[in-house]
């Protein structure tokens, strides 16, 4: 899978860091001060997402660059991947549960702490859009299963067959050798988590997934759980997760990362700490994957993963960047 390719360009980044002080020393005091204040100015607008979902951040950027809200940006960015039949980890074309049904999880959270989620929803192409309706049009935060699907139809969403031929054939193959037994691995799941800051400095996030491939029917992971798969605090920053949802739920991962940033850690440091806490509870295991990305109010970003190969995407004035991340690999 291309998004698992770890782009080894950290040497380029390191070279940039080494040369920076040399350049600054040649400048006048005013120039140096200006450069310093520019550095501390918040980076905004900006969108970031898990993995290499460049179409998602590009869409979010389209919304942000014309002054759109971070909420619209994350929703529309997530919708791009939900609609992509070639992405088998989210939306239409997502891998089914072990009974052959595609069930989707998603949530969204805005600058005011409003949030909405749908759990194990079927036959709906854009669960993140239903989650936004839950947030805006109901007194609730979460709707699950048949109730969520019924609510979506009431809101005008169409019934769609989410199981593509490709995902169906792979499921049939899986059944031949699996003994119908869901397993934890790093290959048959992923999630798009997307975070954005708009021109006003307001932060929103969204998270959407088809969850673990061939999971038990009714299984729900971290992705639609506020605090686990996604958390936004407009004063501090936001975080979102991908990987084995059970572990992220156990540690309330995204909330933890935002709280670590509140205590002064950078997004990078906070993501590293979140991953290390999970590893500390899973001594000796290397069969699973957890990745976090985070952004703080200044627009600084970070990402970290248990397994190598994790990247995240940013899109800001500086352009579209694929950010390979460090990984926690236990010796
Ligand atoms: N976090 C998702 C879940 O557990 C899957 C993933 O991101 O890989 O449902």
Structure description:
With 331 residues, the protein is an alpha+beta fold. It has one domain: (Glycosyl)asparaginase (Glutamine Phosphoribosylpyrophosphate, subunit 1, domain 1). 36% of the residues lie in helices and 21% in strands. It contains 10 helices and 13 strands. The strands form 2 sheets. The protein has an 8-stranded mixed β-sheet with strand order 4-3-2-6-5-1-11-12. Strands 7-8-9-10-13 form a 5-stranded mixed β-sheet. Strand 9 and strand 10 form a beta hairpin. Helix 4 runs antiparallel to helix 5 and helix 9 packs across helix 10. It is globular and about 55 Å long. The N terminus is likely disordered.
Keywords:
alpha+beta; Glutamine Phosphoribosylpyrophosphate, subunit 1, domain 1; 8-stranded mixed sheet; 5-stranded mixed sheet; 10 helices; 21% strand; disordered N terminus; binds aspartic acid
């Amino acid at each position: 899978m291309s998004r698992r390719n770890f782009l080894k360009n950290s040497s380029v980044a390191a070279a940039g860091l080494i040369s920076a002080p040399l350049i600054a020393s040649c400048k006048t005091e005013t120039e140096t001060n200006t450069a310093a204040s520019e550095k501390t100015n918040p980076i905004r607008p900006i969108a970031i997402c898990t993995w290499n979902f460049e179409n998602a951040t590009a869409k979010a950027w389209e919304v942000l660059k014309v002054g759109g809200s971070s909420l619209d940006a994350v929703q529309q960015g997530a919708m791009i991947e939900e609609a992509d039949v070639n992405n088998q980890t989210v939306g239409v074309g997502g891998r089914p549960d072990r009974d052959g049904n595609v069930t989707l999880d998603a949530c969204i959270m805005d600058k005011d702490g409003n949030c909405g989620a749908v759990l194990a929803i079927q036959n709906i192409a854009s669960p993140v859009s239903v989650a936004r309706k839950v947030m805006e049009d109901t007194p609730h935060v979460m709707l699950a299963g048949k109730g969520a699907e019924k609510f979506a139809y009431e809101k005008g969403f169409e019934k769609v067959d989410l199981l593509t031929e490709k995902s169906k054939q792979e499921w049939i193959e899986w059944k031949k050798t699996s003994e119908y037994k869901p397993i934890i691995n790093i290959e048959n799941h992923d999630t798009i988590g997307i975070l954005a800051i708009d021109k006003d400095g307001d932060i929103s996030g969204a998270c959407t997934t088809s969850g673990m491939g061939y999971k038990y029917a009714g299984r729900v992971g971290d992705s639609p759980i506020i605090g686990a798969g996604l958390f936004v605090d407009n004063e501090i920053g936001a975080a979102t997760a991908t990987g084995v949802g059970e572990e992220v739920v156990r540690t309330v991962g995204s909330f933890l990362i935002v709280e670590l940033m509140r205590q002064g850690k950078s997004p990078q440091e906070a993501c590293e700490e979140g991953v290390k806490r999970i590893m500390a509870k899973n001594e000796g295991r290397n069969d699973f994957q957890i990745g976090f990305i985070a952004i703080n109010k200044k627009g600084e970003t970070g990402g970290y993963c248990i397994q190598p190969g994790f990247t995240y995407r940013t899109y800001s004035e500086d352009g579209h960047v694929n950010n390979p991340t460090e990984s926690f690999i236990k010796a």
